[in-house]
Amino acid sequence: MSFLRRVGWLNVLLVFVPVALFSPHGEGYAAWVFVASAVAIIPLAGLMGKATENLSVRFGPGVSGLLNASFGNAAELIIALFALRKGLVEVVKASITGSILGNVLLVLGASLLAGGLKYPRQTFNSTAAGVAATMLALAATGLVVPAVFHAYLPGHQFVQAEHDLSLEISVVLFAAYLLMLVFSLKTHRHLYDPSLNGHDSASRVPAPSPATSTSPLPVDPVPAAEAESDEEHWSVRTSLIVLVAATVGVSVMSERLVGAIEAASAVFGWTPVFVGVIVVAIVGNAAEHSTAILVAMKNHMELAVQIAIGSGIQIALFVAPLLVFVSCLPGFTRLNLVFTMLEVAAVVVSVILIALVVRDGESNWIEGLMLLAVYLIFAIAFYNLPPMEELGHPPAPETSMGSPAFFHPVKPPSIEMTLV
Q: What angle (nearest 5°) sits at the alpha carbon of residue 81, between those of residues 76 and 83?
């Protein structure tokens, strides 16, 4: 299988796939299964990245970025579905927030840093990136409104009202996502594919070398050795087969991962929120990491931005509403869009930062470093966040659909005035 040899040293990590599959069950092996499954996803994500890179040569950054985001988020969706079946609502909500933060801060930050260390100045379409930042602002609104609504409820007697609100907002977010697809793939496709706007691409970067002239992406000339390796591309059929097979592998490993979450969390001392926001999100975003960083280091920043921000948008506008819809089915725990104060604040701050970074259509390594620093700050905060029981908040009852108690305001003591 020649395509495996082209992936490189990541092939060595494929040995963790059978290790995770055939590891004994039981709490004593949960931590090992959790780690083995997480490591096994890395080489599978590498195959997904390689396949998507080859597809981008044929289809352009718009379609390939959407394709990569769809397959990259398949693992996160499957993890969330299994967690919902097990009643791990807090982990599901945290994984949604963590996926958004992981894509717009960690993936994009790592891409800007890796690409910026090699190229002093990289460019991308500021209009398309601005539209993506606006869509992220819409997603943030979909998180803030249920949180504010929940803050003014006097208790848990309005659980059904919260769920109805979340369901209605999910319909709006899902419709916005479908219309965004029409915008990016039909009416304004030229914003996402530089090959359809040749004069804009030519003004930004040097002309591509003959070895890379078949790519619709504007790239700088590459050394002869790198150019020779780039001449050989997988066919569309091979790329699709590898992409689908790797996605299936990631899904299977994700099933093993979610089955060991609870026991592994007890072993490592992690809270459910930290597991969802940081651990599960990083594992689920492995595909986006490998692909976005790879194309950024080859000066394909247009595609890297589409992968990172586009995947975050898909999580917020497609995966989250879809999970709310699925939670209404029998056998699933009910899910709403009420998130903790820290999660909402993290998403809002991330949207503001992304808008500032992409507004000029240029990037450098220091901007990537800043995004990574912000992600690290949030990771530290979630790691040190105690469980709700230690904060004096009792766990939310099952009928509350897992709504966190962070937003319930404490009523001030009543003051009685006695007239003498």
A: 95
Cα(65)–Cα(302) distance, integer angstroms: 9
Spatial distance between the Cα atoms of 292 and 103, rounded to a whole number of angstroms: 10
Query: CA-to-CA distance for 99 and 73, rounded, in angstroms?
Result: 9
Phi-psi region of 279 (alpha: psi -120 to 50; beta: other; left: phi over 0): alpha
Distance CA 91, CA 17 (A): 24
Which tens digits make up the pLDDT trace of 196-232? 654 444 334 333 333 333 333 333 333 333 433 444 5
Record the tokens describing residue 79, joined without a space: 């993890």
Q: How far apart are CA 161 and CA 340, in angstroms?
A: 18
Per-residue CA distances from 83 to 24, 48, 112, 180, 274 (Å): 21, 24, 33, 29, 15
Average pLDDT, the chain: 75
Domain ranges of the chain: 2-215+234-385
User: In angstroms, rounded to a whole number, what is the distance separating the alpha carbons of residues 255 and 275?
Assistant: 15
Report residue 117 as tokens: 């260390």
**HEC per residue, 340-393:** CHHHHHHHHHHHHHHHHHHCCCEECHHHHHHHHHHHHHHHHHHHHCCCCCCCCC
CATH 1.10.260.40 fits 2-215+234-385, yes or no: no
The sign of the dihedral angle between the CA atoms of 14, 18, 21, 22 is negative
Residue owning tokens 């009202």: 161
Compute, in degrees rounded to 10, the torsion defined by CA atoms 13, 19, 21, 22.
Answer: 160
Q: Please, are residues 45 and 11 in contact by the beta-carbon 8 Å criterion? A: no
CA neighbor of 53 nearest in space, from 68, 40, 32, 38: 68
Per-residue 3-state assignment (H helix, E strand, C coil) for 212-272: HCCCCCCCCCCCHHHHHHHHCCCCHHHHHHHHHHHHHHHHHHHHHHHHCHHHHHHHHCCCH
Please give the distance of CA 352 from its chain centroid, rounded to a whole number: 17
- How many whole angstroms separate alpha carbon 201 and alpha carbon 140? 32
Q: What is the DSSP string of 134-176?
A: HHHHHHHHHHHHHHHHHHT-SSSTTHHHHHHHHHHHHHHHHHH
Altogether, the residues listed in the chain come to a count of 420
Average pLDDT, consecutive stretches of 10 residues, N- to C-terminus, the chain (420 residues): 55 81 74 84 75 71 60 74 83 89 91 91 86 89 87 71 90 91 79 57 36 33 38 75 82 78 81 84 73 86 86 89 91 87 90 90 91 94 74 44 40 41
